[in-house]
């Protein structure tokens, strides 16, 4: 500390750690994965325990977590609106996929609601933003690197606001809706990719209709992305939500078995 103040009196780059005069001592290493084994009692809360598959349950049991309790939400049944037929679309090309996302956003904005759009990558998000950013009055981008992070979250639930998010923002972010938006049906969520882990989809759905609020959810997918993720074959014609969901569960079990080995 004293060396830091001494160096402040002369020209030095505070980002160059060699200027600080620290002595680095390697005193050992520790595995964070092993730390839970040292505790006699571990308690945890999660909203996705019911979606765990076999190999994930086994991983949890390896830490002596053997008792699970499923409690109903304090707010009762969810007000989320999602129809597996009408709120699910697969488009043949990326151009049509982006156009459909834009069309769906506009449909919701006409009711003066707010829209959250989740993309699998920043690349896909940015491509959409570059093409349509001049067509929205209130457009925000929310990623891991967003500087005005809290402002974006606070204003995401205001009428006529569109917030483009990376998939990471679909977990643990507490979006709130204004009274005006609630009156018209709450925040609308559009997921533009198919989650290979059902828990991720559940979390993204949970960004709206929080507590006892209203909300709706929609899946708009690109066939090319589904083929790339090996969810469907190139010649596949069966692209129903129920079919893709079952395919996803099978993939999770297969990959989980490989990881367990």
TrEMBL record:
Protein transport in keyword set: yes
Could you give a single Gene Ontology term from the biological process aspect? protein targeting
Membrane-spanning residues where?
Answer: none
Alphabetically, the GO molecular function entries are: ATP binding
Q: Which UniProt keywords apply?
A: Protein transport, Translocation, Transport
Q: Which InterPro entries match?
A: P-loop_NTPase, SecA, SecA_motor_DEAD
Q: Which residues form the SecA family profile domain?
A: 1-261
Would you say which domain of life the source belongs to?
A: Eukaryota
Q: What is this protein called?
A: Protein translocase subunit SecA 2
Organism of derivation = Lygus hesperus (Western plant bug)
Upper lineage: Eukaryota, Metazoa, Ecdysozoa, Arthropoda, Hexapoda
